[in-house]
């Protein structure tokens, strides 16, 4: 209820209900609701708050009570009420223990990954957390470079293949989930010692090693089914990536460059997507792949600064520890090479101005990100990491628009040649 003014409430002693005179909303109260009634059911609690965004004021007017707005932005409902609506309050008074407690008892319809996870059966929730279902950022970061490759490989003047975009979207979800399981299986003992990861299902013992292995088998089986929809060159190329997927978690044990290993692994889909359209790996996709690998090294190096103190105690290696106070200098160099790789790819494919506009926005975003990030603030590192989801989309739009305009440019070039 998003009401900008106070509303009069009239207590009905017979029906034990409160009638909103202005909006015609009837709020039913359980007779035993201690939050709103005292033992003799004659007065309201004066200082308790509604988690839905309202509270009773201390003032009286002609024996009536006021229901004042109590602004919780995330709790504001954008629904305009008309007529009479019913809303049942918990009979045990828990509605006044805070908005979080009340939200748990009155589930609102939501399609966010976190809401879906919370609404799923309890037995399924550990598996969803195991594949990071409630944290889709990893899936997006795997998916966007694949879309770049699909868009750049499309014929001039054409949109990217929708079927391939769908296949690679599903593949990104299942392979990211499989990668998370492999990582957690290798790092189960390490994760127990890290504050951010100690509650993961395998580390906490919520799932057994065998259960994780079964879930991994299911994810890889679906991924194989998706891969088999492509040509055989792409199938072999995709199967080769399993060596990287399985061995990547070991990199942090032997080298300070696990982020480089992650970049090589995570962006393998760039090569697969290109070969799915063109039939093989060609020169333009090599520079795109290099740019994508460096992009991963940038955002994952920022991300790894969240755990650098735990990593030092445990003995795990990362670029955050390798670069130390010079992290921004290193990442600036990576970003420069990345932008150069994207530009070289555009030149090789005769891209048009929208593509270069996307590259420019990408460069500006990276510059701002590296300039403003506080590498000693875990929350800021996480926020900068998450911001890369939108950046991937911007680059994709630039690629699609640039490819569509290539036909107009080619026609203009042909007319100039005739003249």
TrEMBL record:
InterPro entries: HB_polyprenyltransferase-like, Prenyltransferase, UbiA_prenyltransferase, UbiA_prenylTrfase_CS, UbiA_sf. It is found in: Membrane; Mitochondrion inner membrane. The chain crosses the membrane at residues 207-226, 232-251, 260-277, 283-302, 330-349, 355-373, 385-405. GO terms for biological process: isoprenoid biosynthetic process; ubiquinone biosynthetic process. The keyword NAD does not apply. It comes from the Eukaryota. GO terms for cellular component: mitochondrial inner membrane. GO terms for molecular function: 4-hydroxybenzoate polyprenyltransferase activity. The keyword Transmembrane helix applies. Its EC number is 2.5.1.39. It is a multi-pass membrane protein. Its cofactor is Mg(2+). It catalyses: an all-trans-polyprenyl diphosphate + 4-hydroxybenzoate = a 4-hydroxy-3-(all-trans-polyprenyl)benzoate + diphosphate; all-trans-decaprenyl diphosphate + 4-hydroxybenzoate = 4-hydroxy-3-(all-trans-decaprenyl)benzoate + diphosphate; all-trans-nonaprenyl diphosphate + 4-hydroxybenzoate = 4-hydroxy-3-(all-trans-nonaprenyl)benzoate + diphosphate. This is 4-hydroxybenzoate polyprenyltransferase, mitochondrial. It comes from Mytilus edulis (Blue mussel).
